[in-house]
């Protein structure tokens, strides 16, 4: 996947240095840190076009991630400075899509991220995008649906786990940031044994994520991971069995 298009208003590039705490024991960038980079460069782009966090707060509006897809293509070592480019791809009535490219020094494509964002009001309800957004980012109307991840019922032999949402995982919206869920599914893969741990280290590695519901602060979370023959399926639920996240990982 590449970021393209001729309208400079639709894209922004920025450098990101991989810090010590953003790498794992293997010395490589964590997948969750990649999502944080993509989210941050998207906000830089919005602010550069005049749609600041204050602008959204004054109107009682917020973006939340509904789905994401990414591919880790090359190892990204600690200490390198990456070039990230974000681009607004298009809209539908209540949502927008961004693509981000991540390039190593020298220009090689190391990873890409697609993120589907939905807009909510101050009560958490889905709301139509205000006119100022397509005016600032004149992208086309999308003819594709939001990304979905369909999973069968959790099989009886799935690797199961449980934990609680920790305070340090909460973002300014007082819920776990979308990147935190990637840390959780990687923990679930590690708990599944050597085969699960191996897919975390694989390059290239593709991940698809559908955020079904937001976890509350301190909430109990249950994880399930199982091999599918073409990769891994993962489900995070609350203690009542309601899906919070559905994901697949392929390497």
Question: Quick recap of the structure?
Answer:
The chain has 251 residues and is α+β, with helices and mostly antiparallel strands. The chain has helices spanning 31-48, 53-58, 132-136, 178-191, 194-201, and strands spanning 11-17, 62-72, 81-91, 95-103, 109-120, 159-164, 205-211, 220-227, 232-238, 243-250.
Walk me through this protein's architecture.
- This protein is α+β, with helices and mostly antiparallel strands and 251 residues long.
- The chain is 20% helix and 34% strand.
- The chain is built from 5 helices and 10 strands, in the order E-H-H-E-E-E-E-H-E-H-H-E-E-E-E.
- The chain has a 10-stranded antiparallel β-sheet, covered by helices on one side.
- Strand 4 and strand 5 form a beta hairpin.
- The chain is globular.
Relevant terms:
about 250 residues; alpha+beta; Thiol Ester Dehydrase, Chain A; 2 domains; ten-stranded antiparallel β-sheet; 10 strands
CATH homologous superfamily classification of the largest domain: Hotdog Thioesterase
Largest sheet: 10 strands, antiparallel
Shape: globular
What's the number of structural domains?
2
Number of separate helices: 5
Q: Report Rg.
A: 18 Å
Average pLDDT, all residues = 95
Q: In total, how many beta strands? A: 10
Order of helices and strands: EHHEEEEHEHHEEEE
Helix coverage percent of residues? Answer: 10-25%
CATH architecture of the largest domain: Roll
Low-confidence stretches: none
CATH topology of the largest domain: Thiol Ester Dehydrase, Chain A
Cα distance spanning the termini: 17 Å
Look at the helices and sheets and give the structural class.
alpha+beta
Physical arrangement of strands within the biggest beta sheet:
1-3-4-5-2-7-10-9-8-6
Strand content: 25-35%
Can you tell me the CATH class of the largest domain?
Alpha Beta
């Amino acid at each position: 996947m590449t970021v393209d298009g001729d309208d400079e208003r639709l894209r922004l590039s920025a450098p990101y240095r991989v810090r010590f705490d953003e790498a794992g024991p293997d010395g490589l960038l964590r997948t969750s840190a990649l999502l944080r980079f993509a989210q941050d460069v998207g906000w830089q782009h919005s602010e550069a076009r005049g749609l600041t966090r204050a602008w959204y707060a004054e109107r009682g509006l917020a973006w939340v991630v509904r789905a994401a897809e990414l591919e880790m293509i090359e190892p990204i070592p600690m200490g390198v400075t990456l070039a990230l480019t974000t681009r607004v791809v298009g809209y539908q009535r209540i949502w927008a899509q961004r693509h981000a490219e991540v390039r190593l020094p020298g220009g090689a494509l190391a990873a890409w991220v697609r993120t589907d964002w939905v807009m909510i009001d101050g009560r958490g309800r889905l709301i139509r995008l205000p006119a100022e957004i397509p005016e600032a980012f004149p992208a086309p109307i999308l003819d594709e649906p939001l990304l979905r991840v369909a999973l069968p019922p959790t099989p009886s032999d799935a690797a199961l786990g449980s934990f609680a949402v920790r305070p340090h995982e909460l973002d300014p919206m007082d819920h776990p940031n979308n990147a935190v869920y990637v840390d959780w599914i990687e923990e679930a893969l590690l708990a599944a044994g050597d085969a699960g741990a191996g897919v975390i280290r694989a390059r290239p590695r593709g991940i698809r994520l559908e955020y079904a519901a937001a976890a509350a602060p301190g909430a109990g979370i249950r994880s399930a991971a199982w091999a599918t023959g073409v990769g891994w399926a993962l489900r995070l639920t609350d203690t009542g069995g309601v899906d919070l996240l559905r994901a697949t990982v392929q390497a």
